[in-house]
């Protein structure tokens, strides 16, 4: 990478503003998956071990510039403290006198965690005033928040205009692994795109068609394509205004010789929930009052076969509503195929796909579990990541 990293700078005695991505799932005030916190530990330990005064900053959820009590970072501070086996001084303010006093009283190797940076409206606007407030707290900026690197915010980009800015170990590792995979991808190269964020991901498909040999579509995303093919999708997830785009992408795939895989059968339900009635139907027979919540057995077999014959597979987004057992078969099937594909380099693109892979016990069989969903997709698309662009060149 042509950007400076934490290994290129002296940190002893310095106040280091370290942006991390502690945007973790929470339930009843507890962290339910600490993977992102664990992923930041090496950088934090390197900093504390070298005698830096560490100021950690993260967002949690999307509070949109207001204080939302459930989105405070208190539970995150507790979990981090357990993982590090040392005290983490959590502040109630994002910037200003309280954090300043906490930082002033830090010993070398001590840690302060600021409150959720998205409680400040200036964060997502990349407000210059807020970026300066952050910079005033520190001598050096370390960005280790790969999961938020696709965001140009005050604590991921703006701050770098004021103080020296370098990448952390996690950021470096993510960019290195994904960069190597993308530079000259081993072929056949397959991307599997699923999940529910149709609006976010439909644009990604366009760019991926320039890069991959096989594109597999599953999850809620699939039904806009199914409808575009001329089939009825009942009550399944659908973006009516993206139908033309879906048609264009299918034509582009054909033009480019990219094999475009869509479900040929699905598990449909008469309700969204554990107690729904379900049945497997061919894709052209989704009943009007039913909703497709998973890919079907024939589709699973085909997708498994494609994975088996690939050399590089990147997976973002579950194949169905995996949180409910009845609709988890597609996601488990694909995860299993990736786990079994020993000669295939497998990359899991963060978010719910990573959660699913963890849940079903395949995590240690994957070559790279990225901490960023949106960030890894934008990187793979070839887009610039503002959180990386902002760092100092070597
Ligand atoms: N057929 C479907 N209908 C509705 N929701 C779905 C369907 N398939 C998957 N989902 C949901 O998609 C969600 C994940 O979507 P998304 O956030 O786009 O994935 P990721 O976090 O991996 O990027 C999961 O909660 C899952 O239940
Ligand atoms: O969870 C995240 O994104 P992801 O679900 O795409 O991995 C990051 O923390 C970024 O959060 P955001 O999409 O609210 O900016």
Automatic annotation (TrEMBL):
<dbReference type="InterPro" id="IPR036043">
    <property type="entry name" value="Phosphoglycerate_kinase_sf"/>
</dbReference>
<feature type="binding site">
    <location>
        <begin position="59"/>
        <end position="62"/>
    </location>
    <ligand>
        <name>substrate</name>
    </ligand>
</feature>
<keyword id="KW-0597">Phosphoprotein</keyword>
<dbReference type="InterPro" id="IPR015911">
    <property type="entry name" value="Phosphoglycerate_kinase_CS"/>
</dbReference>
<feature type="binding site">
    <location>
        <position position="201"/>
    </location>
    <ligand>
        <name>ATP</name>
    </ligand>
</feature>
<feature type="binding site">
    <location>
        <position position="118"/>
    </location>
    <ligand>
        <name>(2R)-3-phosphoglycerate</name>
    </ligand>
</feature>
<feature type="modified residue" description="Phosphothreonine">
    <location>
        <position position="299"/>
    </location>
</feature>
<dbReference type="GO" id="GO:0006096">
    <property type="term" value="P:glycolytic process"/>
</dbReference>
<dbReference type="GO" id="GO:0005524">
    <property type="term" value="F:ATP binding"/>
</dbReference>
<feature type="binding site">
    <location>
        <position position="36"/>
    </location>
    <ligand>
        <name>(2R)-3-phosphoglycerate</name>
    </ligand>
</feature>
<protein>
    <recommendedName>
        <fullName>Phosphoglycerate kinase</fullName>
        <ecNumber>2.7.2.3</ecNumber>
    </recommendedName>
</protein>
<dbReference type="GO" id="GO:0005829">
    <property type="term" value="C:cytosol"/>
</dbReference>
<keyword id="KW-0418">Kinase</keyword>
<comment type="similarity">
    <text>Belongs to the phosphoglycerate kinase family.</text>
</comment>
<feature type="binding site">
    <location>
        <position position="151"/>
    </location>
    <ligand>
        <name>substrate</name>
    </ligand>
</feature>
<comment type="pathway">
    <text>Carbohydrate degradation; glycolysis; pyruvate from D-glyceraldehyde 3-phosphate: step 2/5.</text>
</comment>
<dbReference type="InterPro" id="IPR015824">
    <property type="entry name" value="Phosphoglycerate_kinase_N"/>
</dbReference>
<comment type="subunit">
    <text>Monomer.</text>
</comment>
<dbReference type="Pfam" id="PF00162">
    <property type="entry name" value="PGK"/>
</dbReference>
<feature type="binding site">
    <location>
        <position position="36"/>
    </location>
    <ligand>
        <name>substrate</name>
    </ligand>
</feature>
<dbReference type="GO" id="GO:0043531">
    <property type="term" value="F:ADP binding"/>
</dbReference>
<keyword id="KW-0963">Cytoplasm</keyword>
<feature type="binding site">
    <location>
        <begin position="21"/>
        <end position="23"/>
    </location>
    <ligand>
        <name>substrate</name>
    </ligand>
</feature>
<dbReference type="GO" id="GO:0006094">
    <property type="term" value="P:gluconeogenesis"/>
</dbReference>
<keyword id="KW-0067">ATP-binding</keyword>
<keyword id="KW-0547">Nucleotide-binding</keyword>
<feature type="binding site">
    <location>
        <begin position="350"/>
        <end position="353"/>
    </location>
    <ligand>
        <name>ATP</name>
    </ligand>
</feature>
<dbReference type="GO" id="GO:0004618">
    <property type="term" value="F:phosphoglycerate kinase activity"/>
</dbReference>
<keyword id="KW-0808">Transferase</keyword>
<feature type="binding site">
    <location>
        <position position="118"/>
    </location>
    <ligand>
        <name>substrate</name>
    </ligand>
</feature>
<feature type="binding site">
    <location>
        <position position="151"/>
    </location>
    <ligand>
        <name>(2R)-3-phosphoglycerate</name>
    </ligand>
</feature>
<dbReference type="InterPro" id="IPR001576">
    <property type="entry name" value="Phosphoglycerate_kinase"/>
</dbReference>
<feature type="binding site">
    <location>
        <position position="323"/>
    </location>
    <ligand>
        <name>ATP</name>
    </ligand>
</feature>
<keyword id="KW-0324">Glycolysis</keyword>
């Amino acid at each position: 990478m042509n950007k400076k990293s934490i290994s290129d700078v002296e940190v002893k005695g310095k106040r280091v503003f370290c942006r991390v991505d502690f945007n973790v799932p929470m339930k009843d005030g507890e962290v339910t998956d600490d993977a992102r916190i664990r992923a930041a530990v090496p950088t934090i330990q390197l900093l504390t071990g070298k005698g830096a005064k560490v100021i950690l900053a993260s967002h949690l959820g999307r509070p949109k510039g207001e204080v939302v009590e459930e989105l405070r970072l208190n539970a995150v501070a507790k979990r981090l403290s357990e993982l590090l086996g040392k005290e983490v001084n959590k502040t109630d303010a994002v910037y200003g006198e309280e954090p300043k006093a906490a930082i002033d009283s830090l010993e070398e190797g001590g840690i302060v965690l600021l409150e959720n940076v998205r409680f400040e409206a200036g964060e997502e606007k990349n407000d210059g005033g807020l970026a300066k407030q952050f910079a005033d707290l520190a001598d050096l900026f370390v960005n280790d928040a790969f999961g938020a690197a696709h965001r140009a915010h005050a604590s991921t980009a703006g701050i770098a205009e004021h103080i020296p800015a370098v990448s952390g170990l996690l950021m470096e590792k993510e960019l290195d692994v994904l960069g190597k995979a993308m530079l000259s991808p081993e072929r056949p190269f397959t991307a599997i795109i699923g999940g529910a964020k149709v609006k976010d991901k439909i644009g990604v498909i366009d760019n991926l068609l320039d890069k991959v040999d096989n594109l597999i579509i599953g999850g809620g995303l699939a039904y806009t394509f199914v409808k575009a093919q001329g089939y009825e999708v009942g009550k399944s997830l659908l973006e009516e205004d993206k139908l033309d785009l879906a048609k264009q992408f299918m034509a582009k795939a054909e033009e480019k010789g990219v094999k475009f895989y869509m479900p040929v059968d699905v598990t449909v339900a008469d309700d969204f929930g554990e107690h729904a009635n379900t049945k497997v139907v061919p894709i052209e027979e989704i009943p009007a009052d039913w909703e497709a919540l998973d890919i079907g057995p024939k589709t699973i077999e085909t997708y498994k076969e494609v994975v088996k014959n690939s050399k590089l597979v990147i997976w973002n987004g579950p194949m169905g509503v995996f949180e409910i057992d009845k609709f988890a078969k597609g996601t488990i099937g694909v995860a299993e195929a990736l786990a079994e594909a020993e000669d295939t380099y497998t990359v899991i693109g963060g978010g719910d796909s990573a959660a699913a892979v963890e849940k079903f016990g395949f995590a240690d069989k994957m070559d790279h579990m990225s901490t960023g969903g949106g960030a890894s997709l934008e990187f793979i698309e070839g887009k610039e990541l503002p959180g990386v662009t902002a760092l100092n060149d070597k």
